[in-house]
Prior knowledge:
Blueprint: E1 2-10, E2 18-19, E3 27-28, E4 30-34, E5 43-51, E6 56-62, E7 73-77, E8 85-86, E9 91-94, E10 100-107
Amino acid sequence: MQPTFLGKVTVTTAGTAVPLITDPAIRACKILFFSIPGLTGSVYVGGAGLNQSTLAAVMIKFNAPGTAGESGYFELGTEDGRNSLRVCDYYVGAAVSGEGLLVTYFQE
């Protein structure tokens, strides 16, 4: 498996989700999302239409440290190990401008 390190995917404006990448041709067999120490607000992973208020199109929510819920990392992968995940279909949203997640995707 070949990793591609996107680094921090930053949400410039709180409440406005950003795609991981924009190239629809790039596909992966696994995508890893890591929370960043020092988050001050919640960060979300989901699809187009991600809405952190209603949780529409939200797959997972990373809470700021000190609050209950998921923290750490989230792994999304294909069962057969094939590059069938379109990386551009996944978005990051944040409650605080300038926050985001570390993202790495893998290709076979």
